[in-house]
Structure formats: structure tokens, C-alpha cells
Amino acid sequence: xxxxPTAAPREILYYWEDFPVGQVREFGHMPVTREAVLAFAHQFxxxxxxxxxxxxxxxxxxxLAASGWHTCSMAMRMMCDDYLLQSSSLGSPGIDNLRWIKPxxxxxxxxxxxxxxxxxxxxxxxxxxxxxxxxxxxxxHGEVVMSMQGWNMFGRREAAAA
Length: 162
Prior knowledge:
This protein has 162 residues and is of the alpha+beta class. The chain is built from 5 helices and 5 strands.
């Protein structure tokens, strides 16, 4: 019989009320390694320009490039590390307007800029609220390499206190 470990109790620092419209957060510092690019690509996106130097040289990228899905995964990790794991997050109904604007290469260092675009209580669940955010992934030169928008659901502080 397999036992599933339970999550350790965590302190919730961020609730729906902590994401006012107009708020900007900048966070993360993730180096992109060749090993990580190859490992992700071999498992999830084995297109030649993600897995083979020679093929990548003749591609539009000119050299080995990270999969866009890998870039999304790195953004997710930085969001978890910065605020999601310390929040009352209830998940997300989805992402909109995902764009891979510039290639991400081994040797790049990525960060995230999050802007809160909208926030409202959930009509169907008064103990929760929705936050619409715009995320931009930036490389070490401050260039936007990826952008996306989406909604997150968060528990409300008033509900937690009740």
C-alpha cells in the first residue's frame, strides 16, 4: 500500500485583496541551462531545433532554443516561488493571449513582470475572487520574450477570517 505524503501546513500571506488593479510585481531570476533545455525538449517537445545543435543552426532560431512550453513552465515556477505557494490560490480557469515573442536560449536569465489588470469577487462563490493578470517574461537584457494573460482564483481574506 502506498501512502501519499500530506502537504506541510503553510502560512498564507496573499489573498484576493492583496492583488489590487494596477499592481506590478517583478520577480524571479532563472538561468536557462543547456541541460534543462534538452531535458525538457526530449520529454515534451522533441522538435529538432530544441534537441539538436546542427538542426537548430539551420532553423529560424540559428541555435538551440528552449521550447515555448518550457518557457511557460519556467514562468510558472517563478510565480509559485514568488507568491502562489504563499497564497490562497484556488487555481486558474485558463490562460489567454499566450505569445512567444523572442527565442529563449541556453545562457539567458529570465524574470517575470506581473501586472494586475482586473479583480472582482466571484458571483458564484462569495468566499473567492478572480484576478486577471498580464505576465511578461523578460530576458537578462530586459527584452520581453513571452507574454500571456489569464485569470486566477484566490480565497478572500474576509472569508478566511470568518
